[in-house]
Amino acid sequence: MTRSLDGRVAVVTGAGSGIGRAIALRLAEDTAKIAIWDINAEGAEETAKLIRDAGGTALALTVDCSDKAAIQAAAEQTRKELGAPAILVNNAGIAPFTPFLEIEDDLFDKTIRINLRGPFLVTKELLPAMVESGWGRVINITSSSVQSGSFAQGHYVSSKGGLMGMTKALALEFAATGVTFNMVPPGFIDTPMLRSAPIDAEAFAQTLPMKRIGQPADIAAAVAYLASEEASYITGQTISTNGGRYMGSH
Predict the structure, then answer these.
(1) Half-sphere exposure of 230 toward its Cβ, with a 13 Å CA cutoff?
(2) CB neighbours of 166 closer than 8 A, spacing ≥ 6?
(3) Could you state, in order of their start, the residue ranges of all structural domains in the chain?
(4) What are residue 171's phi and psi, to 5 degrees?
């Protein structure tokens, strides 16, 4: 079922490939106007072209989504060309694998800067207009590793755990404003990031209850629901999209 977003403006960070691209395509299908913010200019433009070729509206911007000045400039351009964003999907992130005792301080700081401070800055930039209009959706892409742990990813899981906590805190603080905050923690999803990871993905898939790796469209479908009008009474919640890897309420 397609849920019409009535041409609302959506910012999807890290939408130049993988899960972010699938989210951007799905929200465009649901009639949102999409601002693609990605550090990879070529990937961002490719996503925008896919949306335009399908009859949608898309703006591709090259943005380091952890850089405050870059975020402010991208927000200004998005407002100018598309209008004020009402939907934000914080998807941009990195997922390094490093044994804990080998994590350099700089790598830990970089992971936190991109995966946690970045969404903080983007949300802070776009939230006031949502509050003012009385309607908004902030959807954070966290990780099933927060629920189950992940080997050699102490830095990554810490950053995504922080994002989970922020989501709940903001859901509570802004619950009465008409702006909701929810999260989608992906399990093992077939993306360029997963394929470059030091993991035998197909072998791991056999350990999952569903015996298969998820697709980016699976995450996009969960995000599309949380972005819809139908999800207006849902905030501070988690839609675990993981093939049964983790079953629980958080």
Answers:
(1) 10
(2) 116, 119, 120, 140
(3) 9-231
(4) -60, -40
60 CB contacts (<8 Å, ≥6 apart)?
Answer: 36, 38, 41, 44, 45, 47, 48
pLDDT tens digits for range 70-122:
999 999 999 999 999 999 999 999 999 999 999 999 999 999 999 999 999 99
Residues 6 or more apart from 126 whose CB is under 8 A from it?
A: 11, 75, 85, 88
Helix (H) or strand (E) holding 125: helix 118-133
Whether residue 233 lies in the annotated active site? no
From the list 156, 225, 233, 246, the catalytic residue is: 156
**CATH code linked to domain 9-231:** 3.40.50.720
Binned at pLDDT 50, 70 and 90, residue 242 comes out as: confident
